[in-house]
Protein 1
Amino acid sequence: MTENFDLFSAEPPAQSAAAAPEKVIAKVQELRARLQRWAHEYYVQDAPTVPDGEYDRVFQQLQALEGAYPQLVTPDSPTQRVIGAVLEGLAPVRHAVPMLSIQTETDNEATGAIAFDQRVRRELGLGEADPVVEYVAEPKFDGLAMNLRYENGQLVQATTRGDGEVGEDVTHNIRTIRQIPLSLPAASSVPPVVEVRGEVHMAKADLQKLNERQLAAGGKTFANPRNAAAGSVRQLDSGIAAQRPLSFFAYGLGEITPAAQGGPDFVTHYAMLQMLKSWGFPVAPQVCIAQGAPELVAFHERLGAARESLPFEIDGVVYKVNSLALQRQLGFKSREPRWAVAHKYPAQEMPTLMESIDVQVGRTGKLTPVARLAPVQVGGVVVTNATLSNLFDIRKKGVRVGDTVIVRRAGDVIPEVVGRVAGERPVYVPNFRMPKTCPICGSAVVREKGEANHRCTGGLFCGAQRKEAILHFAHRRAMDIEGLGDKLVDQLVDAQVVRVLPDLYRLGLSSLAALDRMAEKSAQNVLAALEKSKSTTLQRFLFGLGIRHVGESTAKDLAKHFGKLDAIMDASVEELLQVNDVGPVVADSIHTFFAQPHNREVVEQLRACGVHWEEGEPAEKAPQILAGLTVVLTGTLPTLSRDAAKDMLEAAGAKVSGSVSKKTSYVVAGAEAGSKLAKAEELGVTVLDEAGMLVLLKGQGTA
Ligand code: IVH
């Protein structure tokens, strides 16, 4: 055995039977410590300090050394996470301390917190004059409860909750979860026996990625993180669990060596969580101390508002009395602690029957499939319709009429069909197809190349688009025609009184008052609002026309740039491209719109009806001091974004190109500029930094 062999060579000598040299033992320990620290920084703190490649390199070094000296392999080595053992079945394990559940209440308001606090105070015999009770408020994670047993600092067993008394041994799978330490630090606080309890779950983004992978591989998808976690943790083959991106949050303890026998001494739940954190367990950053009911209410509201944007799924909040002495005093009622309560938020996802799929036509002619559902309570309201964005969405989700589907409603967004509940289809139902003709006007339906959406080609001829077009025109931020809402537009279009936008200004008192439920006074108000709307701004008018891709801000940019409507109507695509933030798609859409004679006719008629606005002069064009020059941008500039720099250069007449050639006039390089900078240097092209570019733009450069 050579004492000084190269520890970093890819293949250490195969001498497994021999005793490992001191140096190797020390090296192995040092590599493990490094890998454990990096993994903790990466998986628990979300703050990696080394590149992945570096981790892999050190991991392989450790693997190589352990390969050469198998006697040095320990169960807590980072190389031992994925063991790939396949079990016959999951073994039952009786919990040393039962895994209880918490009293769970569903509430919409925050009143639950007040009721819980009152209950606790009453049980503790506290009067009004007594101080507030201190609580810990936690998210209620949507996952699977897990008991992690550590003996002498080593993870020896992981069990599911099961029925609370007896769970299943899932150690082989839990060992693959990077956020769960295989061994605890050699800290004085770590007792001979400790069971850490918490929730195995799957982050939203990880679940989405997993489902995409499952779909691509023809496997089944998971409706929520809870199913995904359960489906992964209860696998017999740990190789499968290892590929499932599981996470963990600690929230409690099971058996622990008592303080009298050398166990750690802590007096609050919060202090216990801090201790778990110091041992390397993830504790949710949202967990906080709350004084009395008002702070619980505030937590409930805060977390409810943040729920959508949290990286992991929660289904409510959990409140726990912080003092362990008070917890003992409160004790248990049947199988639930009196010192804790869970308040569930209304479910955001519910299964229901999809009865049919209808097709709706939007203002821009987009055909949207809409699922008609058996009524179901989701997120606190009854849902009967949900969107299925387009044909591809339906295909991707694999849903068919008659399926039980999962409906999701989050915040104010339109409910959507997430997927179908696995199971046999009782009868064969063909796949959904888009209609070939518009269900409203019968015009042909097309799907443009590269687009996911189908569209009706009827334009203003299509009733659906007409109604939407009128509503958009009347919108508060467009022509602002007060009183011209959904119902009235429906009536006007259905009665064929209004076919095109200018018809609005041809309405008379008699035709309006003739409509159902239209009093003369209301009719007069509508006429007055129409009259008032005639005097507008170019920006509002342009926005109101409902040109595809022309929102408020583009309308504003167009008005500012051209000053006059005629200039916009006659602008070429190239001229339109000069406008701030107008790219090829938008320019093309505007150009196509005004190329249609019927659209120009609408504009003319509106003007003839008296619609007017003040016209201005076109925005002054910057002096084209860089005309004829080609500039390439590369790397990150210190203050300007790539787009801002490009705009400035183009406004001064330069052409901004993506690749460096002999024809390039300048390369503007920022931090981390790569091959383009090298190419410029090779070709002898002048390289400027941001400051140099600004000098050039001022006309003081070397051009
Ligand atoms: S504490 C005695 N804290 O909810 C209290 N549970 O019915 C034991 N859960 O099975 C549980 N988030 O899976 C606790 N912050 C949290 C939790 C939480 C989710 C789950 C857990 C348990 C169920 C309680």
Protein 2
Amino acid sequence: MTSANVLGQLAGLLASGGIEVVDCSGVLGPETPLLKLPPDFAKDTPPIRIHRISEYDQDGPFWAWNWLELGEHSGTHFDAPHHWITGKDYPDGYTDTLDVQRLVAPVNVLDFSAECAADPDFLLTVDHVTAWEAEHGAINAGEWVVLRSDWDKFTNDEAAFLNANETGPHTPGPTPELIQYLIAKGIVGWGSQCIGTDAGQAGGMNPPYPAHNLLHANNRFGLASLANLSKLPPKGAILVAAPLKIKNGTGSPIRALALVPKA
Ligand code: 23J
Ligand code: MN
């Protein structure tokens, strides 16, 4: 089958609904949960603001438009390699220089939502993932891997989403060894439904923030605050996760879209 035939079939299935486009982004606005760094770091990402320019009024009689005030790492978003010091030297590690061929890829959806509900500090390990692979099939080079925690159920409640107390944030994420394992497999990137790609307690890991540190050291991508992963199969969907082409950008909000075969 030629690639033209495949795309033609894809077009037909998209039109008929045989392939469903699932929205894996949350709403981006003033209520969107934002990262709060530990107090020893100086600056947080600023509040998201949507400013009206005009709405069919004296400032623009026939048109409505807004301008945005927001950090790159806001809401459902993409981490480019240049985001972390370990990835700073990749010429193709910025939002405007990365290889877009890598942004559209099969996605492995690892459902550990029950474990995350039982323990907000749940850490996904190599043993969890090798067991998952034995059941669902191998994770391959060139694929996305995302942890389904169903954390998007907290998206309308920032305190619940961040789940922080006097010991810091408590949200699930990967172990350093798991990230190393996935990098060795050749994945394009790792995604989470929480505020960042790392666990809430990842500042105390070795290395600190291993998803950030190791993924970006190896020119891989991160995805955060993904939504609706419960609508995706473990394997068989294709994820499109494309950042804005921000000049020298370290990340960007995304409209993450999954192409899912209808059951
Ligand atoms: C800046 C500093 C630390 C972290 C982060 C950003 C993120 O999680 C992010 O959005 O990339 S941990
Ligand atoms: Mn980020």
